[in-house]
Design goal:
Layout: E1 8-11, H1 19-31, E2 33-38, E3 41-46, E4 50-53, H2 68-72, H3 76-79, H4 94-109, H5 126-130, H6 132-139, E5 149-157, E6 160-165, H7 167-178, H8 187-206, H9 218-234, H10 242-257, H11 261-267, H12 277-299
Parallel strand pairs: 1-4
Antiparallel strand pairs: 2-3, 5-6
Length: 300
């Protein structure tokens, strides 16, 4: 994490971490620093990095009736330090399987054999070894970042076909966005974020604890602010809007409750329409009149 300062560190098999490393990672994810006390040296190193971790369930299969912490064997104090937690299940859906297979086949079909890293291994150029396709783009004469969209990959959303940006362009765009100034957060957005945080916390208090990925704490509010600011930076905006907070809230909602806010709104039963006071009085008067008429006929 110290080597990944101002970058991203990816950790695989996160559930198999020993207790010593698990204690040490708490400080990194909370304070972005690493304290070293060894051989008479006591110092603090910067570890300002983002953590992307992948973990497997401890029983090789995810138990839906248990919480996320019990499935991967990690304490809530560590899970709460992650901004977003997503559960990826191996669902047997023919449509999703077809999309994944098409993506994999497309990558192999349009793969250029000249981009093979092992065939052009070069110790003098690390970038060429790690990212051979980027070096090939430079050698083809198109210049740096010449291609913005993938040539053979398109995403169909309904009736609209969208092109997929290349990895090289996405890296450069994110690098440019990170160099910009942080967007400002005005008072209206802070009050709006506080209201949404209170609503999420209220829902988590009455929800089944086994269905919640992590407890809702003040870190959740900080996560909302970070995600909203990041979304505003992607728009190259100078101020955070309520739309950015809505996007951040949807991500947090999906991470904590494992379902989207739109799906939950559809599942809620529609409220019965309450008649107006005038209509209520007219209906009551008609019922009383009918009752009196029935009583009079009965006397006769």
């Amino acid at each position: 994490m110290v080597l990944a300062d101002r970058g991203v560190v990816c950790i695989d098999e996160f559930d198999k971490m020993n207790d010593a490393d698990r204690v040490a990672i708490h400080e990194v994810m909370e304070q972005q620093t690493v304290t070293i006390a060894k051989a008479g040296i006591h110092t603090t190193l910067n570890a300002r990095c983002s953590v992307v971790a992948a973990a497997n369930p401890i029983y090789s299969e995810y138990a839906r009736d248990q919480s996320v912490g019990k499935n991967i064997g990690l304490p809530d104090s560590l899970l709460s330090r992650f901004d977003l937690i997503f559960i990826m299940l191996d669902e047997k859906d023919p449509e999703n399987d077809r999309k994944i297979a098409e993506r994999v086949i497309t990558n192999h079909r349009h793969h250029n054999p000249n981009h093979d890293a092992m065939a052009h291994f070069n110790f003098a150029n690390d970038d060429y070894v790690i990212e051979p396709e980027m070096q090939a783009n430079r050698n083809e004469g198109g210049g740096v970042g010449a291609s913005i969209y993938e040539k053979h990959i398109q995403k169909v959303s309904g009736d609209v076909t969208r092109s997929v940006v290349t990895r090289d362009f996405l890296k450069r765009y994110i690098s440019y966005v990170k160099s910009l100034k942080e967007p400002e957060l005005n008072s209206d957005c802070t009050e709006y974020a506080a209201q949404l945080y209170a609503a999420i916390r209220q829902k988590a208090a009455y929800a089944d604890q086994n269905t919640i990925a992590c407890p809702v704490t003040v870190r959740t509010l900080e996560t909302m602010i970070r995600l909203a600011t990041a979304h505003a930076k992607l728009r190259l905006a100078k101020q955070v809007r309520t739309d950015d907070i809505d996007i951040a809230t949807k991500l947090i909602y999906m991470s904590i409750f494992q379902n989207s806010m739109d799906d939950e709104d559809e599942e809620k039963p529609k409220k019965a329409t309450v008649p107006a006071p005038a209509a209520q009085k007219a209906e009551a008067a008609a019922s009383a009149k009918a009752a009196r008429g029935a009583a009079g006929k009965k006397r006769v």
